Amino acid sequence: MVIPEPTVAMAGPARYPNTGIHGRIVHGIGEDIVSGRLEAGARLPADKELMARFEASRTALREALKVLTTKGLIESRQRAGTLVRPRADWDLLDQDVLSWHSPENISEAFTADLVELRELIEPAAAKLAASRATSDDLARIEAAYLRMERWVDDYEKFYIADRDFHLAVLYASHNQLVQRLASIIGTVLSIGFSLQKQAGIPLREALESHYGVFEGIRDRDRRAAERAMRVTIRRGKNTLSRRREIMRGQNPAE
Length: 254
Prior knowledge:
Blueprint: H1 20-35, H2 47-54, H3 58-70, E1 74-77, E2 81-84, H4 95-99, H5 108-132, H6 135-150, H7 155-172, H8 176-197, H9 207-218, H10 222-247
Antiparallel strand pairs: 1-2
Helix pairs in contact: 1-3, 5-7, 5-8, 5-9, 5-10, 6-7, 6-9, 7-8, 8-10, 9-10
């Protein structure tokens, strides 16, 4: 039997397409806002300017602005035009809004929030998976782990396998709400991986704790699975701390 490997696309609602006129407008303006190029309270450029920038019709522009409105990024006011809303109003659990954060514009506070979100969800999911995982679930988790081993010297391929490992664990919980959160966790993992890559820390360090998660789930040891997942997330958290030190020009060994 061929076991399909989990992907972000399997993990809930798809992100808004970034192709076509609508997609180019949504992602272009969304990235401008999240990056800070358009600050809270700022007025969006005039329709004619945006239409020229994206080579779009007024109808296409209006439809794209509606999408950004539903994500909490902008609002239209009579006489004032279309304004950027404060960050507190953004839908930060929206996959697109999350993905528009880059290593260059994400704050330490928000990075810490993302780690805390993982700490709340993933250990519990691993614990549930230890009770509920099917043979297919175990095969997916193991296959992802083996790809991590195979690609331990290739950051991009390793992180794809790592993401698939975590998504497979979330699906193995067989909790419908946890599975719906997989789309968010998948995006959070991608952000974390982008930050960790800058630290250049050897990937092999991650293998032991990931195998511990798989082993705990395979052996139906709920506590072991939960504990190993906490260790895995803590390791990622420590890597991010070392990355911040590197970005500040400090020696992590000091």
